[in-house]
Amino acid sequence: MPVRTATGIWRGDLKNGDGTVALGSGAFEGPYTFASRFEEGPGTNPDELLGAAHAGCFAMALSNGLAGAGFTPTEVRVEARVHLGRDDQGAAITKIELVCRATVPGIDAEAFAEQAEAAKVGCPVSKALAAVPIELDAALA
């Protein structure tokens, strides 16, 4: 299996510094700051990138599970909402909500829900984030 890479560079102190994150593939490079992570400033942040990875992974895992059950999805759309909060050690990702709406011809709601739950538990990013509560809101579109 391949090894994926990404880089993060930070210059300066936490509040006044700035940085850049980049994907090893070259598909994305973006700036980040204290304001883009802990406030509503411009730029990206590690939590948003983690959400993108989780949304993409879950969508692929669900599509694969559906196909294995004999259903070909027309579209699986996932939004990951990564909650940054505090715990007793400081800043922490406290919850991830996966909101999924899918168009899957021929499947009923119960079978879809079973596949969605299996994808939530089984996708590699969900496994990596097992210490974080993951909530799923999955429904047919």
Summarize the structure.
Helices cover 33% and strands 36% of the residues. By secondary structure, it is an alpha+beta fold.
CATH topology of the largest domain: GMP Synthetase, Chain A, domain 3
Q: Which stretches are poorly predicted, pLDDT < 50 over at least 5 residues?
A: none
- Given the C-alpha coordinates, what overall shape results? elongated
**Gyration radius from CA atoms, angstroms:** 17 Å
The N- and C-terminal alpha carbons lie at a distance of: 34 Å
Q: Give the H and E element order.
A: EEEHHEEHHE
CATH superfamily of the largest domain: K homology (KH) domain
Given the structure, what is the number of helices? 4
CATH architecture of the largest domain: 2-Layer Sandwich
Strand content: 35-45%
Helix content: 25-40%
CATH uppermost class of the largest domain: Alpha Beta
Mean pLDDT: 97
